[in-house]
Amino acid sequence: MRYFAFIFIFIFIVSCRPQTYTPKPAGYFRIDTFQHAYQLFNDPQFPYSFEYPVYAKITRDTSFFGEKPENPYWININIPSMNGTIYISYKVISAKQPFAKLLEDAHKMTWFHDTRADYIETSPFVNRAGVTSLLFDVGGNAASAYQFIATDSVKNFIRGALYFDVPPNVDSLRPANNFMKTDILHLLATLKFK
């Protein structure tokens, strides 16, 4: 009986210590969006022009090529407030790089995300300048939710992809992806080749 009393007192003392509370996170970080407004990118050195968001900054892409890029028409549209970037690559359609090969490479790069994507939907359209575009909506926890190609099918070919510098989580990135889709569609609607 003394043994049971000792166990009972020990359990009573151990169970009466104060609880420590660990707060749970409130949820995902809030992403502040802006009013959609655009400015014209029309550098005379570039073979294309388009409108892009006023809250974005365009830089030349040197990430793969050092300070002297292999293709001087590759650019990044940086959106610092969302920690995102739209990567734009440009190629001239030629005998060395035929249209069919460029199209196949663009599809391969998009379908590379198929292992993490829930779905990949395509939306083709032609803008007022006659530029044909294809927007890839990549659903799920893929690294890039939107990719696109735009071409005149004769001389010019552009491939673009939206990436955020955060781990891909479809739930937390949904507001940013939805917001940026409007900007990407506007870019494609205003794209012109010179």
Describe the protein in words.
With 194 residues, this protein is of the alpha+beta class. The chain has a single domain (38-193), classed as Protein Transport Mog1p, Chain A. Helices cover 25% and strands 33% of the residues. The longest helix is centred in the last third of the chain and has 21 residues, at 170-190. The chain starts with a helix and ends with a strand. The radius of gyration is 25 Å and the shape is elongated. The model has no long low-confidence stretch (mean pLDDT 86).
The helix/strand order is HEEEEEHEEEEHE
Largest sheet: 7 strands, antiparallel
CATH level-two architecture: 3-Layer(aba) Sandwich
Rounded to an integer in angstroms, the radius of gyration calculated over CA atoms is 25 Å
Estimated helix fraction: 10-25%
CATH class: Alpha Beta
Structural class: alpha+beta
The portion of residues forming beta strands comes to: 25-35%
